[in-house]
Design a protein that fits this description.
This protein is of the alpha+beta class and about 270 residues long. The chain folds into 2 domains: about 130 residues, Heat Shock Protein 90, CATH 3.30.565.40; about 100 residues, Actin, Chain A, domain 4 (Alpha-Beta Complex). It is about 35% helix and about 25% strand. The chain has 7 helices and 9 strands. The strands form 2 sheets. Strands 1-2-3-4-5-6 form a 6-stranded mixed sheet. It has a 3-stranded antiparallel sheet with strand order 7-8-9. β3 and β4 form a beta hairpin.
Length: about 270
Amino acid sequence: MKNIRSLLVVVAISLLVFACHNKYTDDIIDAKDIEFEEFSTSRFPEFDANLEVAIYFKLPKTGVNEKLDSIYADLVAFYTDSSKREIQSGIEMFADSIEAEYYTNKEDIGADISGFIYAVNYYDSIYPVFADGNLLAYLNGHYEYQGGAHGLSATTYSVYNLATGKRITEDDIFLMNDTTLKVLSDMIEEAFGVEYSSEIDDLWEDDVNYVNGNFCISADSLYYQYQPYEIGPYAMGMPRVALHKDSVKSFLKKDGPLYEYWYPEKKK
């Protein structure tokens, strides 16, 4: 009887280990094969047109691949407070908090300032814009208005390496040093001169950081994105410039994810 119990314990432990080992059943080897799930919520009360909240996410399915789970967690960290809370409830709670704060502030302001119209517009969307090979790029588009002359928009990109599940930085793709930084900055400024020729004189002259870490990729180019006021006046909007892959090739790490994607057959 003791031997049977021991055997059952061993079998149970073996099954548990096997189940844990096989938690992730699919191995994603190409970003084009990723499956996504959509999440959204909104607050547009019919009785109050001055409150607008809309949040939309298109995220990798969880539980499929450990690396994708890591990417998922990075994308939703702001809305889940890095906890285990499921994202749908996370964005619902966040939208509820904006709505509650709006009505509290509206009541306080309305009692003090006659005729003042208090409004809150909050839009946030996170969705993939590029998926190929080991590379997955996401855009986070954000707009927020809480009074004043205008709201503020922001566009940020996150590029991920499916082989590691981590966000790719400039240090991962470039042989980064002072020379590389200077050449890249000059190339970006020159690109502005071509794409924004009528506004090139409006660029800030001092403390401009063109190599700002906010970049996206495509099949043949690297894009740098800038926010309002970051490199020029608000009237410039959110400018973005492209650097063709061949123009930055000599500065790429040959064992880096971008060189391996762009020049797979030429790597030595």
